[in-house]
Amino acid sequence: MAKIVLLADLHGNMPATLAMEAEINKIEPDEIWFLGDAVGKGPESDKTCDWVREHCQYFIGGNWDYGSSDPKNEGSDFYRKQLGEERITWLRGLPNEAELLVSGIQFRLFHGRPVTPLFQGSASDEFLSDFFRNREKTYGGFICADSHRPYMRTTPFGYALNTGSVGNSLCVTKAHGLLIEGEKDCKEEAPIRITALSVPYDNGLAAKIAAECEELPKREAYIREVLTGVYAR
User: Fold this and answer.
1) 122 burial type by CB count under 10 A (0-12 exposed, 13-18 middle, 19+ buried)
2) N or C: which end of the chain has fewer CB within 10 A?
3) Exposure b/e, 37-73, CB count within 10 A at least 16 = b
4) Contact 185, 104 (CB under 8 A)
5) What is the pTM of this model?
6) Nearest CA to 178 among 17, 55, 24?
7) What does pLDDT average to in each consecutive run of 10 residues of the chain (233 residues)?
8) Do 85 and 59 touch, CB atoms closer than 8 A?
């Protein structure tokens, strides 16, 4: 039975990323999948980008990966300077979706934006139905990120899963990820385990690092988010 960890939304938060790394080391997974947004929001996007490249085997891009250095977006000068052209080129070249076959379930993997609009786990079955298919095929489940809230639910179309956010969680201020255990690349139905990872980390240290980064765009909003899980509206 393979162990597969799926992570997303590190968002420049290295204390959260390192806490998740320590938990992953205990799990000893066979593969780590990255589902987008290594960068943006937090003060150490260069480090979280490098962490993803070093530790993950499969990669999907998210809206911040593609757009944080775009001159049309607020704070692009900061991210362009911090990331450098080589990282930016790598991020912009990431595919925007993939697929994963486990225990007879073909999962569609995507970050969320820009492939889909932003949505939460409370969305209706009808709304979610579109995400179980793309132009080429229909899937038995999907795994996404983007909303910064982990969830697992069933629908008439299959499983809808969200990794949650490692570095910028909404509501519960821990580092979140997803562990799937099953028979990888197996077309026959077999048992599958789906576990949410919830890892405490030093939120105060994350806030301190951000406070010391005077050029960080929307710094006070980010500090509030990592300390409280409450986002500005």
Assistant:
1) exposed
2) C
3) bbbbbbbbbbbbbebbeeebeebbbbbbbbbbbeeee
4) no
5) 0.97
6) 24
7) 98 99 98 98 98 98 96 95 98 98 98 97 97 94 98 98 98 98 98 98 98 97 98 75
8) no
